[in-house]
Amino acid sequence: MTVIETAFTPWASLIGGLLIGFATVLLMLVRGNVFGATGVLAGFMTPSSSSDWAWRATLIAGMLTGPFAILLFTGGFPVIEVPMSRLAMIVGGFIVGIGVTYGSGCTSGHGVCGLARLSPRSIAATATFMLFSFITVYVIRHVIGG
Amino acid sequence: MQKLLIYISGLMFGVGVSMGGMANPAKVQNFFDVFGVWDPSLALVMGGALLVTAPGYWLIFKRGKPLFAGGFSVPTNRTIDAKLIFGSATFGIGWGIAGFCPGASIPVMSTLNPDVLIFSGAMIAGIFAAKGMMHLAAQRSAKAGQAA
């Protein structure tokens, strides 16, 4: 574990957030679906029909193009700084996969689309995963790492 | 037309996640490190998204139906159960450990960053493992129901 300090980026983060908002609104307007990354990915891997697969594949293709748009405008891919080990990527990734499946959603599905609809399940889910992320980072950095 | 709009939706999401810093594990961990090197940026990502999604959804729902489908396919379950809380708590632990969430890792897979690819592979394995466990649990409870 290392700590990589990052600068507060209010404008880039706010604009990024607004863009995520417009993306969710566009998908709801076009197809009537929530933009939950977990649901989109799970349905892409185990689709219920070929038309169900097609729109998910199109959406994911768009998502994957995002970093290239950043490359085009800034001359570089988005910054990815990883403070944790490869083992943490494997363990963390596996735990995330289990959690989002049992929890039926993640930051985009519950944290954005669900909160926007004032879904009680999403409010409970978001409060829970934010709290547990906070506790986990606290333990990693100030209990084990401190 | 529908395909193009869906593609643009994905593209905006991918650009938004990348710009916002959501796909940078250092920034994600620092957001939660309130008592350390706190970086509040991600609050603006989620806040910014909600600022658009909440009124946007409201207007679309008021409109009655989507452009290219007969109705909305939004989740209707409103019950807060143990599965939801267990899953969300588990997800939170994994997010804290790795610093990536699904919506952030999917777009940046195209950068072929090895950490992203390893995280995403493990995440997909976790999704299938959980689906398998849930399937087994459903079978077992169905059998228990038959026995009774």
Automatic annotation (TrEMBL), chain A:
It is a multi-pass membrane protein. The chain crosses the membrane at residues 12-33, 53-73, 85-103, 123-140. It is found in: Cell inner membrane. It comes from the Bacteria. Keywords: Cell inner membrane, Cell membrane, Membrane, Transmembrane, Transmembrane helix, Transport. InterPro entries: Sulf_transp_TsuA/YedE. Belongs to the TsuA/YedE (TC 9.B.102) family. This is YeeE/YedE family protein. It comes from Maritimibacter dapengensis. The lineage of its organism: Bacteria, Pseudomonadati, Pseudomonadota, Alphaproteobacteria, Rhodobacterales.
From TrEMBL, chain B:
Keywords: Membrane, Transmembrane, Transmembrane helix. It comes from Maritimibacter dapengensis. Pfam families: DUF6691. This is YeeE/YedE family protein. The lineage of its organism: Bacteria, Pseudomonadati, Pseudomonadota, Alphaproteobacteria, Rhodobacterales. InterPro entries: DUF6691 (IPR046513). The chain crosses the membrane at residues 41-61, 82-105, 117-138.
